Recover the amino acids of this structure.
């Protein structure tokens, strides 16, 4: 494949390609390799503490070492290994399965990857900042706050920041995948018709969009407690210990609610892609279509919805009342039932099949069996009386490893399934089967004894002598499981050179579109525009496409409306700005599949590198160290500069000329991206507002106002700001109207007005804050600052988050004003519309914050 | 009123004589049923899975024994479902009935565990439990505080549990009582011990370097012995003569950890 043909992208043998690429297949490969690296990282930590557990006592790692190892093992496996591993496949396979040439926003996709990689590096760096996080992967409060972290605790802060960075990557990815799947399906492919793996990814990203927004809120609050000194998760603010009459009695439970509201959907976020892989492998290697496919899909949708109403089953012992316990018991049992259906669907798919025990099928079948055991032992936990006693024991550990690692098992099957597609080579099947044998043995030897030794409390290194035999067995199993990966790595690595070349489809009965193209597929994926209009996959040639797009004016309009696509940047905040760089009209042939899509950009890497440096700096700013302060400053400037560079870079990611777009035919992709981003932003603010309400109710709704808020905190500044924002929203509408009427002066004037009102908002807020910081009254002799009490913390942080949104909006507004001055947007107000969506949203949020923080 | 109650409690122990169903008995019964059924269901379903996988195994001869009965998927076809959905539903219904009836059966037991026994004339012994890094304070009705939990045999003991620093969880595994110890909140739990002896109480939520060693003894005494012990605490003080401070406990934990080779920070 010539370099010219790759549109400026260096060949795969060149290192620079991997820094520049925005192609979904390259990024998929990067995800897979990086995730496997984190599997080894998390796995070595697990082996370390399994060694520790050979005998009772912390004679190997020491107690803090042990706590760090178990905590980071959990974080690495859940966040940095299993989901990104699944998303390696999602990146590579989903566009191929649905007939798209790439994701909707290729540079955003690259940005997701680099943020993910750098967040993992930041996680690694935390080990070298004294101690890393040692409070368990669930990070319960207030053990997660600096007051209870030994030493300076900078490593723990880095972990929190790394998680924020990871969450940013996930949110961008969710927006990208959703936009892709709703705007770029092959003609004739309804949502329900897309292959089951892609469907599982679709539901996964929906859950991610909302669940990770809740996690982001929790992490932002925690980071603020670490860095800014707010007191959300400290129940005793002056440092004294007390059991009751605490300053913030809701502190611990607030974290638990936020974390598990994310944490339970996360279980399905991790498991769904694995289920998708299992279903694909079962279909291919049994030569049967998935039995009860419709019900399988409905079950997945039900689980995805219900996953948001089961989180309190992780908190049955926190003192929640019986009616709520009963409801959550019912939803928990309810969510387990669809899985029964899915399991039986997979079992019956084998009936009358031609089952071939290939390596990917062995892993899929193995995963199904492990999942059945994980599911049955989960029902035990659904019975609350049993759950009480299992809480915090190895029963839970064994159960969720049987579920999560069963998921990982299916994903390893996926690796063997798609390896020939990705590399064009076949691996050694015998070695693959040997690995499966060793893996399956090691897995069960590792996790099954944990059921027998279930009375051992979690995360301890001391256990009764009678249980030693089981813990030793588990340790042996862990090493066998680990060794099986050496076989896999050897096999897959050697096969890159020695493996036999494979054609497009090495598997009999594979049906989905990725197998209809060469292995590996060409850069643009398909030989023509894929279509299922006749009920079977076809590739339309350029002539047909041109003919059809010219005949149907609607379709052509779609084509040109989309040309600005690739200029998206960081998930919405800047997407509006990106839209501003849209070029007006594209020549007709560009819409007909002959366009030169861009595939290379260095900016995503630079943005992420800048973000990494900034976050590393932030982890230490509270020490006042010049080193950390300068890192934060340099990183901040680098990130901002790279974002501007990315916005100004011309980048083409044309929308498909012909595609199935239900239900968003009329929402072009930039707008759909903005909508999905704002949907997650709603959950973010919702979680902040919910946190405020929760801690206030825990304190006492009316006493809060009386005890914690100074009389100087008056309504007027908030009221003025409400008017300023409302007026500015109105001006954005005027700017749109002016742009539509092609009045350059009107557009500029309205945008300048918007900008001025927004700045006025910030100045007013700044004055208000300054005043409150420095009041000196009887009740608040030292002012009312961020750390004064829980009311001040909620006030400054929540309205501060809103202020940050206003600031980002103003940067975009300033950029657009300059562009409007230079004559942009005339006759095409879409960019202003997208900015307006964001700005109105920020405005509406304020309409909630104003009464909550100024009136009630 | 409070004083008279305390006096009453110290003088006359209202005991249930072992006829209250202990939480451990409730747990054991449910756990047994679940283990039995869970194992049975697991064996049946896994066997059923393997049966399908092996029965329909491709013989490698290249012929399709079901060629006339089923249609094989083809490259590039629109994804659709295979036949046999009804069987899925039957199997699903059986599993749903098993799961739902099992959980429903445990629900009545949950109500008992939640509310505790309803005994006429029974005054439960109420003890406040405060968790801290890395030990427990037990506060008796007379204000006496200990680090070891002393309770009489055959008496309902109700615990009000909280924590003074981070999130802990108080559990006595053998007596099947467990509840979260959340700073700023109170949770409650009850138990009764029908046999005397020394049991272990443990922390079940990661709370820092000494978490693994945050255990203490629970001593179940014959009623008269307990009566004697409690009367003495009443005479001596209300401040707690054997209370270790948090710092002392910390030292103990550090010493133990060092002995075990650890180095708590």
């Amino acid at each position: 494949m010539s370099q010219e043909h790759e549109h400026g992208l260096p060949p795969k043998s060149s290192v620079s390609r991997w820094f520049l690429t925005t192609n979904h297949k390259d990024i998929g490969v990067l995800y897979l390799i990086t995730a496997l690296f984190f599997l080894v990282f998390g796995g070595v930590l697990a082996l370390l503490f399994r060694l520790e557990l050979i005998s009772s006592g912390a004679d190997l790692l020491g107690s803090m070492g042990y706590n760090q190892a178990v905590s980071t093992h959990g974080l690495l496996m859940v966040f940095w290994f299993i989901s990104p591993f699944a998303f390696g496949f999602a990146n590579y396979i989903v566009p191929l399965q649905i007939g798209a040439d790439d994701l909707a926003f290729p540079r955003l996709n690259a940005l997701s990857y680099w943020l993910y990689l750098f967040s993992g590096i930041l996680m690694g760096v935390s080990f070298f900042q004294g101690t890393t996080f040692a409070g368990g992967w669930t990070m319960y409060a207030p053990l997660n706050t600096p007051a209870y972290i030994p030493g300076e605790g900078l490593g723990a802060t880095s972990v929190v920041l790394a998680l924020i960075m990871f969450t940013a990557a996930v949110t961008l990815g969710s927006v990208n995948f959703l936009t892709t799947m709703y705007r770029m399906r092959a003609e004739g492919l309804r949502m329900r018709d897309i292959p089951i793996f892609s469907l599982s990814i679709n539901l996964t990203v929906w859950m991610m969009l909302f669940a990770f927004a809740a996690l982001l809120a929790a992490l932002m609050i925690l980071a603020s407690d670490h860095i800014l000194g707010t007191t959300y998760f400290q129940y005793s603010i002056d440092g004294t210990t007390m059991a009751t009459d605490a300053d913030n009695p809701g502190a611990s439970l607030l974290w638990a609610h936020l974390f598990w509201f994310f944490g339970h959907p996360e279980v399905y976020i991790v498991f769904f892609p694995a289920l998708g892989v299992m279903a694909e492998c079962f279909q291919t290697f049994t030569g049967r279509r998935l039995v009860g496919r419709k019900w399988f899909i409905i079950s997945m949708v039900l689980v995805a919805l219900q996953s948001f109403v089961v989180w309190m089953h992780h908190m049955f012992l926190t003192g929640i009342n019986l009616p709520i316990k009963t409801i959550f018991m019912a939803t928990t049992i309810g969510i387990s039932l669809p899985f029964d259906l899915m399991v039986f669907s997979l079992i019956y798919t084998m009936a009358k099949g031609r089952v071939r025990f290939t390596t990917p099928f062995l892993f899929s079948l193995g995963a199904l069996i492990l999942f059945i055991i994980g599911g049955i032992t989960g029902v035990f936990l659904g019975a609350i009386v049993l759950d009480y006693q299992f809480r915090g024991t190895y029963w839970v550990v064994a159960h969720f490893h049987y579920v999560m690692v069963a998921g990982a098992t299916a994903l390893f099957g996926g690796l063997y399934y798609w390896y020939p597609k990705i590399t064009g080579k076949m691996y050694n099947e015998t070695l693959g089967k040997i690995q499966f044998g060793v893996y399956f043995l090691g897995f069960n030897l590792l996790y099954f004894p944990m059921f027998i030794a279930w009375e051992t409390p979690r995360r301890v290194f001391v256990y009764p002598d009678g249980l030693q035999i089981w813990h030793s067995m588990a340790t042996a199993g862990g090493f066998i499981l680990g060794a099986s990966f050496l076989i896999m790595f050897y096999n897959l690595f050697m096969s890159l050179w020695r493996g036999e070349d494979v054609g497009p489809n090495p598997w009999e009965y594979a049906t989905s579109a990725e197998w209809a193209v060469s292995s590996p597929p060409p850069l643009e994926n398909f030989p023509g525009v894929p279509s299922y209009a006749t009920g079977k996959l076809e590739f339309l040639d350029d002539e047909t496409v041109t003919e059809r797009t010219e005949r149907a004016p609607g379709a052509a309009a779609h084509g040109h409306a989309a040309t600005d696509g690739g200029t998206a940047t960081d998930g919405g905040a800047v997407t509006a700005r990106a839209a501003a760089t849209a070029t007006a009209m594209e020549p007709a042939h560009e819409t007909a599949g002959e366009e030169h899509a861009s595939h290379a950009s260095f900016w995503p890497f630079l943005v992420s590198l800048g973000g990494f440096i900034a976050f590393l700096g932030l982890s230490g700013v509270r020490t006042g160290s010049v080193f950390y302060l300068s890192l934060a400053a340099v990183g901040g400037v680098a990130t901002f500069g790279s974002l501007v560079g990315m916005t100004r870079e011309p980048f083409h990611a044309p929308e498909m000329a012909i595609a199935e777009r239900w239900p968003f035919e009329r929402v072009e992709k930039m707008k759909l991206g903005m909508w999905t981003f704002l949907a997650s932003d709603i959950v973010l603010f919702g979680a902040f507002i919910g946190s405020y309400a929760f801690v206030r109710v825990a304190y006492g709704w009316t006493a809060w106002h009386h005890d914690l808020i100074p009389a100087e905190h008056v309504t007027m500044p908030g009221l003025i700001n409400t008017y300023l924002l409302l007026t500015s929203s109105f001006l954005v509408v005027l700017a749109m109207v002016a742009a539509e009427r092609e009045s350059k002066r009107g557009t500029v004037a309205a945008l300048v007005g918007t900008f001025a009102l927004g700045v006025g908002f910030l100045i007013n807020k700044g004055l208000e804050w300054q005043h409150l910081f420095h009041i000196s009254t009887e009740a608040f002799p030292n002012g009312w600052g961020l750390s004064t009490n829980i009311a001040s913390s909620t006030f400054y942080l929540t309205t501060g988050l809103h202020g940050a949104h206003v600031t980002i909006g103003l940067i975009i507004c300033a950029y657009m004003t300059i562009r409007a001055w230079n004559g942009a947007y005339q006759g095409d107000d879409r960019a202003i519309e997208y900015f307006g969506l964001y700005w109105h949203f920020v405005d509406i949020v304020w309409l909630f914050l104003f009464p909550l923080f100024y009136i009630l | 009123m409070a004083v008279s109650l305390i006096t009453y409690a110290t003088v006359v122990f209202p005991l249930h004589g072992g006829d209250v169903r202990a939480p451990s008995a409730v747990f054991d019964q449910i756990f047994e049923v679940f283990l039995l059924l869970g194992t049975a269901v697991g064996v049946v379903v896994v066997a059923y899975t393997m049966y399908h996988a092996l029965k329909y195994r491709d013989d490698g001869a290249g012929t399709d024994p079901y060629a006339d009965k089923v249609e094989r998927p083809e490259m590039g076809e629109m994804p659709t479902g295979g036949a046999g959905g009804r069987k899925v539903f039957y199997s699903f219904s059986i599993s749903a009935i098993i799961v739902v009836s099992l959980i429903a059966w445990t629900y009545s037991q949950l109500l008992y565990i939640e509310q505790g026994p309803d005994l006429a004339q029974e005054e439960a012994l109420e003890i406040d439990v405060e968790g801290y890094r890395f030990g427990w304070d037990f506060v008796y009705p007379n204000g006496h505080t200990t680090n070891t939990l002393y309770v009489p045999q055959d008496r309902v003991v109700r615990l009000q549990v909280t924590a003074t620093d981070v999130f802990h969880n108080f559990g006595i595994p053998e007596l099947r009582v467990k509840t979260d110890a959340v700073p700023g909140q109170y949770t409650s739990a009850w138990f009764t011990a029908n046999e005397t002896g020394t049991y272990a109480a443990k922390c079940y939520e990661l709370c820092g370097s000494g978490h693994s060693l945050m255990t203490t003894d629970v001593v179940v005494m014959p009623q008269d012995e307990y009566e004697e012990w409690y009367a003495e605490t009443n005479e001596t003080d209300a401040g707690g003569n054997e209370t270790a401070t948090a710092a002392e406990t910390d030292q103990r934990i550090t010493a133990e950890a060092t002995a075990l080779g650890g180095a708590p920070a």
Summary: Confidence is low (pLDDT under 50) at residues 1-12, 261-265 of chain B. The two ends of chain B are 47 Å apart (CA to CA). The CA atoms of residues 119 and 129 of chain B lie 23 Å apart.
